[in-house]
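INTERNAL AUDIT FORM
Audit reference: QA-55
Scope: verify that the stored structure record matches its stored sequence.
Auditor: D.O.
Record contents follow.
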Amino acid sequence: MPMVERKQNVIILTVIGIIFLLLLVGIPFYWVFNLSLTPSEEAYSPNLFPTNPTLNNYFDLFNPSKAAERATRFENFTGPLINSAVTAIIVTLSSMFLGSLAAYNLARFNYKGKTYASLYILFAYVFPPFFLMIPLYIVINMLKLGDSLFGLIIAHLAYTLPFSTWILRGYFMNLPKDIEDSALVDGCSRFQTLWKIVLPISAPGLVTAAIFSFTLSWDDLIFALVILSSPNNYTLPLAIAFFMQGGEVYAWGELAASTILATIPPVALYLLIQKYVISGLTGGAIKG
């Protein structure tokens, strides 16, 4: 087969794959978005385009008077939205700070047991999070942190911290040590070198760790379902899971609107910093 013909076949297959992927992702997303703009009386027979588009489904999410029509135990989505934001932001900042310290330790220091520590973090990174539910639930209850956002934050760190550490470890190992040695000769301490030299030039790795930590925490349902029981502490995924009307029927328009609302922050973050995410993943994977 001629080279030109092979290249054409590769291009055709690539285009077909991209179109298939766009349809696979785009059709469900459009259907949910379309349903979020559809009035409740048309929700069970939605059209390709809503005949009477409305934003009431979005407004009703934050309307306390609508809570009586639903089986939810919270007045509106303001509380779950704030709880999710607080939890995800704290988890993200903690993962970045603690992960950078642990990663720098593994990347730059040599000591007995370092290999086992690296393997332990790798094991924690690839270990399925839902296997941790029971032991984490026991530990969190022993610490009297059950049904609290702080307990949920600790549970999220159990799988975001190993990921951040492993990604940053690989990124730090690719940085030239000469820059750090120069800073140490000039009188900087190890922490100052990390804070003033290493972290600023490791922005792609830090951004990658941040965006994935935020997304994992923001989207979590399993740990929230196990740890949280008070409606005042519900996060957004948990609120969506319990979103029903009259205890038997789903309010499809409002459910779709809440789903779209939940996707906005991680999607917006990724679109804003996607170039850093790509370089951070490739940089952290070279010597991971």
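Auditor finding: record pair retrieved intact. The mean pLDDT is 82.
Action required: none
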